[in-house]
Amino acid sequence: MLAKIKYSVEIFKEDEQYVAVCPELDVSSFGDTQKEAENSLKEAVMLFVEECQRMGTLVEVLEEAGFKASEEDPTEWVPRKPLVVERDEVPVLER
Q1: What are the beta bridge partners of residue 12?
Q2: Virtual torsion, Cα 22, 2, 47, 57, nearest 10 deg
Q3: pTM of the model as a whole
Q4: Are the C-beta atoms of 20 and 40 separated by less than 8 Å?
Q5: Exposed, middle or buried by CB within 10 Å (0-12, 13-18, 19+), for 54?
Q6: Dmax of the chain from CA atoms?
């Protein structure tokens, strides 16, 4: 049976490259455009999942990353949702 894994995509611009990150799985990739970075991340996540399946660790990896089966669709894995997302700061000494 096929299952789906829902994941977040965060894209950053670093110099001339775009970097795409899946924070839940700690997977990242890059591209010359936002779309290339997103497509490259999708491929990287697929390869990560395939390797976990090959090793027989996919369920364990997903559960450790906070994923759960969706209540609406038990074949769909969804990441945990934060109650709050904030930015904070701490003082540091200048170098």
Answers
A1: 19
A2: 90
A3: 0.86
A4: yes
A5: exposed
A6: 55
